Amino acid sequence: MKQVLIEDFPAWRTQARELIQAGVEPSQVHFVDGKSGQPLLFDEPAQDQPKPEATKVPAEFLKLASVAAQYRDPDRWDLLYSVLHRLTNGEPYLLKIDVDSDIRRLRLMEKAIRRDIHKMHAFVRFRKIELEGDAEYIAWHRPDHYIVRAATPFFARRFGNMRWAILTPDESAYWDGAELIFGPGAPRDAAPDDDGLEDLWRTYYASIFNPARINLRAMRAEMPVRHWATLPEAQIISNLTREAGFRVQTMIKDQAPSALPWVPQQATLQALREAAIRCEGCELHKCATQVVFGAGPEGARVVLVGEQPGDEEDLAGSPFVGPAGRLLSRALEEAEVDRSALYVTNAVKHFKFIERGKRRIHAKPGGIEISACRPWLEAELEAVKPELVVCLGATAAQSLMGRDFRVTRDRGQFQPHRWAKQIMATIHPSALLRMPEPDRREQEYRLFVHDLALIRPYMQT
Fold it and tell me: What is the pTM of this model?
């Protein structure tokens, strides 16, 4: 049997090409893993050798082979040659047969390599050192496979403005700010500790640690214990897990209010309306007369979303029945849109107000109330499944399209949305009622009617 010494993938590729062209069977050759790793930068360069004629090989195989070549198994070269021989000797579609034992093994090797690269990206922790007056950073990591050259360009991109070195038992990488340089491997004690930087990292890790999601078995699977020696946060995991129960209770106590616990899943509008009566998702339910849920047909093609119910809506239990609602009905009629075919609702379901004597003055809902009530609005939209959502005013628009949305800038413009094919915004009719100048109020009213007229095409079946 012929034995061939192999140090890296390019060397294997050259030798394999020659052997394939010479008709050598896989059983007649054994590749010896020369260095059990990737080549070192400081080796003497190999002498130029005449290149054999090209052998047509699927590009997919070369890509797969270059990844599998990083797998820590001395038999990987023999496996690659066996697959290459089969591909070039009557099995050109071999890579498509996932149940083939050789192909399955290569796929598993590829998956292991990609996972190991991901682990290196996640678990490398740099220590700060002083070298000739300049700050540098050093890290030590023990990968499962020969992945240093494949994994370290990530760090060059992410930490390109600082000089660093990553040491591993097989090979080390150094970034000088412009170029990656590879050299021999190094033992664990070659990377010094930096207590200051690690204390800072431990403090940060403790602050983001979520005890409600703790699963020690899953944690050990994603963060193998063999890497804990180089992870500063691993030193505090045991304390954090012991405190998990207390921290979960604290999180529950401090969590933002939400109506979600009261919202039934995949319910009809009627079921949602009945469930909303009992909602205590935010503080507004304590002062409002009742919840004011949406109104309209469940199969409505268009949904109008306002801000919150007003005084009359709170007393009547129906949306848009007060002064703003009456103005809306008038504008819809002029725009030739049938209000009875629309589903009309609000971003917030309870009336927020300030008492002044016997009067209840509208108070704009805050972000906490809007966020707490969003599950109701989303459940309504899920039940109706409209073609178009029209947001009346900034509160409704920002609730569904984000805080950066500006009605004055983006009104009347259509865009796709997760809850409808299209979404559009215009002003809230109450804004027209607050305008003191008659000429401006009339001008803005005409623009409002124009915006509502854009609804008509969506009303057609």
Answer: 0.49
All residues at 6 or more sequence positions from 433 whose CB lies less than 8 Å from its CB, including other chains: 323, 324, 327
Distance from C-alpha of 332 to C-alpha of 238, rounded to nearest angstrom: 63
Range of the domain at 133: 124-190
Q: First vs last Cα of the chain: how many Å apart?
A: 78
Q: What is the total residue count of the chain?
A: 461
Q: Which of 103, 119, 135 is the last residue of a domain?
A: 119
Please check whether residues 310 and 383 belong to one and the same domain.
yes
Q: Taking the CA of residue 227 as centre, how many other CA atoms within 13 Å lie in the half-sphere pointing to its CB?
A: 21
Closest C-alpha among 16, 41, 14 to residue 30 = 16
Cα gap 376→256, rounded to integer Å: 16
**Single-letter amino acid code for the residue at 274:** E
Per-residue pLDDT of the chain (461 residues; tens, 9 = 90+): 889 899 899 999 999 999 999 999 999 999 998 755 444 333 333 344 444 455 678 899 999 999 999 999 999 999 999 999 999 998 999 999 988 999 999 999 999 999 999 999 988 888 877 655 455 888 889 999 999 999 999 999 988 888 888 989 999 899 988 899 998 888 887 766 555 445 544 454 455 455 544 555 655 666 666 665 666 555 555 665 565 555 545 554 556 788 999 999 889 999 999 999 999 999 999 999 999 999 999 999 999 999 999 999 999 999 999 999 999 999 999 999 999 999 999 999 999 999 998 899 999 999 889 999 999 999 999 999 999 999 999 999 988 988 788 888 889 999 999 889 999 999 999 999 999 999 999 999 999 999 999 999 998 76
Bridge-based pairing state of the strands 302-306 and 29-33: unpaired
Contacts of residue 174, defined as CB under 8 A and 6 or more positions apart, other chains included, come to 163, 164, 165, 180, 181, 182, 183
Residues 67, 163 within the same domain: no
CATH number, residue 374: 3.40.470.10
Of 144, 162, 190, the one marking the end of a domain is: 190
- DSSP states along 332-366: HHHTT--GGGSEEEESS-S--EEEETTEEEE----
**What one-character-per-residue DSSP string does 385-408 give?**
--SEEEEESHHHHHHHH-TT--HH
Structure-block tokens of residue 147: 């992945």
